[in-house]
From TrEMBL:
Protein name: DoxX family protein
Family: Belongs to the DoxX family.
Keywords: Cell membrane, Membrane, Transmembrane, Transmembrane helix
PANTHER family recorded: INNER MEMBRANE PROTEIN YPHA-RELATED, OXIDOREDUCTASE CATD-RELATED
Stored Pfam families: DoxX
InterPro entries the UniProt entry points to: DoxX, DoxX-like_oxidoreductase
Subcellular localization(s) per the UniProt record: Cell membrane
Amino acid sequence: MLPPLVGNPANAVPTDTLERAMSLLRVLGRPMLASMFLTGGLNSVRNPKEVAPVAEPVVQPVTDRVSALPDRTEQVVRLNGAVQVVAGLMLATGRMPRPAALAIAATLVPTTLAGHRFWEAEDPSERAEQRIHFFKNMSMLGGLLIAADDTGARPSVVWRGSHAARGLRRDAGLVRRSVRAATGPAAVAGRVRAKLPV
């Protein structure tokens, strides 16, 4: 039996070939995406004092509002780095990659806002450099959001739920029609005729 095809029949590719290729891309791409967060997160865990002064303007307003976070900026920087390392390892190894990508994405927003405030730089070359880093981080955020949405060629939970609900509605309709056919006027008349003597 031939495998199912995807795409225009003239240049269609067997779906199992596409799935293998996408699987290979995931195996290679996830560690590449995670590598920056593993190294950066490890640096933040080991040396939070290097990053704390830059992070202070972003961290302080958040810690004032969220009592669950540590009060000291260095502790928040270390916590942010630890999340990046743990989630980066999970993403790189393919262990719960979708939640891992979301966790890294959540840490990337404050990291970017704290570390690459190009709009505050007065020197034009410093502003240009920080703008590049800011948008590089935005690109990584986009990649993380794509990774968070990647179901690995399996249907999502939402799709499976709606598909199951559709199947249940179809089955209920069949049962309803069967009951109507069994209890409708023609069925009753047929049963009465069967009981009449011939």
